[in-house]
Design goal:
With 340 residues, the chain is an alpha+beta fold. It contains twelve helices and seven strands. Helix content is 49%, strand content 14%. Helix 8 crosses helix 9 (261-283).
């Protein structure tokens, strides 16, 4: 069964990040930006990643959440690429407040960690985005001391717009599916090591202008979840080795460096199992058994009421109408088998 109404409750109560933390995140970023602007030639800031895409999820106890933002800067005469990132780090390192917090440098960002609150941590990833004299916009690869991309311009808003279009094509379900899959990764330890940008991208690749034409493919949250994850499973099974993964923004950057061959193989195997488990929970006509199957997948926080679930016949008919391709064929076959 779908338990479609309960999925809304589950997202609200267990998956979505709460407004209090988002408000505190806003204030923290504003304070850091003010401190950096006092010492550096900065022209602005912009949200990036899950924060900008509205796919950030609630951290579990003992965990943490992170937010990325761009620090907009103009090219400075005589500065090599890595100096921009180093100057951001040095400014934080000298600051009377932020010098006392854990902070450091990675290849493309400076990170700043906050003390845990209510057993939940938080850190910021600050990414310099430089407008060069020739008008190109680039980020820094500090390890190699080069601009990225080597040619052309990065388009940070492009990926956010791409995610937004996937959400439009699915009648507002895509972002919910991404959050549910992030929750599954974080809460259940499934496919550890797959970064959010990778997960969002490969899920989004399954949503196209053509797929959106299929009647009821994304009719509600569980239908969209099963449709997209089964499409992802087929996409992965057709690719035994880690495929190249270009930034859907089309700016010449890619995400290949963000996961390994081993991470990909584990992800491919786990999605194959997860897709089957979702299909079984979705197609199970008994409300209690279906709820247990979904709970086995998402954990103990998934607790739909089973006393007033609607008839199994109505749920089965709705599930069939929302399927496409091989998934629909499998569903029809399984129903015929049960009916004898």
């Amino acid at each position: 069964m779908q338990h479609a109404e309960y999925f809304k409750t589950f997202l609200k109560d267990a998956v979505n990040i709460d407004k209090t933390r988002l408000k505190k995140l806003d204030s923290r970023v504003e304070a850091v930006y003010k401190a950096l602007r006092a010492d550096l030639a900065i022209t602005g800031k912009s949200r990036q990643g899950s924060w900008a895409q509205r796919t950030i999820v609630r951290p579990k106890p003992g965990g943490e959440f992170d937010a990325d933002f761009f620090l907009l800067m103009n090219e400075q005469a005589g500065w090599e690429p890595k100096r921009y990132l180093n100057e951001v780090y040095n400014t934080l390192h000298r600051h009377p407040t932020y010098s006392k917090q854990k902070h450091g440098r990675k290849c493309r960002c400076v990170w700043l960690e906050y003390a845990s609150e209510n057993d939940v941590g938080c850190h910021l990833d600050i990414v310099p985005l430089i407008t060069l004299a020739d008008g190109r916009r680039v980020i820094v690869n500090r390890d190699d001391n080069v601009w990225e991309p080597e040619y052309g311009s990065t388009n940070p808003q492009g990926l956010t717009n791409w995610v937004k279009r996937r959400d439009q094509l699915t009648s507002g379900q895509f972002r919910r599916v991404v959050r549910l899959m992030k929750y599954l990764r974080n809460e259940r330890g499934s496919f550890d090591g797959v970064k959010s940008v990778i997960l969002t991208t490969v899920l989004g690749l399954q949503v196209t202008e053509a797929s959106a034409l299929t009647p009821r493919a994304y009719a509600n949250i569980p239908t969209a979840l099963v449709s997209i994850v089964e499409d992802l499973d087929r996409w992965l099974q057709a690719r035994p080795d880690k495929p190249p993964l270009s930034n859907p923004a089309g700016d010449g950057t890619d995400f290949d460096h963000r996961w390994t061959d081993a991470t990909y193989r584990n992800f491919r195997d786990r999605i194959h199992s997860i897709a089957a488990a979702m299909r079984a929970a979705f197609d199970e006509p008994d409300a209690a058994k279906s709820a247990k199957a979904w709970r086995d997948l998402f954990g103990d926080k998934f607790n739909p009421p089973t006393g007033r679930s609607g008839s199994s016949r109505r749920s089965s008919a709705a599930s069939l109408s929302g399927l496409t391709g091989a998934a629909a064929t499998r569903s029809i076959s399984s129903r015929q088998g049960r009916a004898g």
